[in-house]
Amino acid sequence: MPKRALITGITGQDGSFLTEFLLNKGYEVFGIIRRSSSFNTDRIDHLYQDPHEPETRLRLIYGDLNDSSSLNQILQRVQPDEIYNLGAQSHVRVSFDVPEYTGEVTGLGTVRLLEAIRTIGLRTKFYQASSSELFGSVVEVPQTERTPFRPRSPYGCAKAYAYFITVNYRESYGLFACNGILFNHESERRGETFVTRKITRAATRIKLKLQEQLFLGNLEARRDWGYAPDYIEAMWLMMQAEEPDDYVIATGETHSIREFLDDAFGYLDLDWKKFVAIDPRYYRPAEVDLLLGDATKARRALGWEPKIGFKELVRLMVDHDLELARQEKATQQIKGALLPQRRWGAA
Ligand code: NAP
Ligand code: GDD
Question: How confident is the model at residue 278, as a pLDDT?
Answer without folding.
Answer: 98
